[in-house]
Amino acid sequence: MKKILLAVLLLFALVMPLAAQEDEVTAIEPRAPRYTCLKCGSLDTSTSLIDTEIGGYNEACIHGKQGSDHVTTYLRTYEVTCHNCGHVFEARTTSSSRTCYGY
Ligand SMILES: [Zn+2]
Ligand SMILES: [Zn+2]
């Protein structure tokens, strides 16, 4: 019985820092990432955001409370232009933020 409790505590210890990290990352609107050109490998590229798709779902609270958390997901599509060879391509990133509705 004691072993199970320990395992649960350990799980929380592992989950909590991850959750905090996730919030920190998404608290600020991410800057457009810099991509390497898929064609010539140059780092001399510019990135512009062309679309953000927002979704979300509810999940059991991970903060040790009753109730649920709401997770908002962002799927961003960027257009990347290479200044070296002129190649243009699309790149996508996903991120999420979590709001606690636990009580
Ligand atoms: Zn290129
Ligand atoms: Zn929560």
Please describe the structure with a list of short key phrases separated by commas or semicolons.
103 residues; alpha+beta; 3-stranded antiparallel sheet; 1 helix; elongated; binds zinc ion
Describe this structure in words.
It is a single chain. With 103 residues, the protein is α+β, with helices and mostly antiparallel strands. It has one domain. It contains 1 helix and 3 strands. The chain has a 3-stranded antiparallel beta sheet with strand order 1-2-3. The longest helix is centred in the N-terminal third of the chain and has 26 residues, at 2-27. It binds zinc ion (ZN) (2 copies). One zinc ion binds at residues 61-63, 65, 69, 100, 102.
Largest sheet: 3 strands, antiparallel
User: How many domain regions?
Assistant: 1
Major sheet strand order: 1-2-3
Computed structural class = alpha+beta
Tell me, briefly, the overall form.
elongated
| Extended strand count | 3
Query: Element order, helices and strands?
Result: HEEE
Cα Rg: 19 Å
Beta-strand proportion? 35-45%
Counted by DSSP, the helix tally is: 1
Mean pLDDT: 82
User: Roughly how many Å apart are the termini?
Assistant: 27 Å
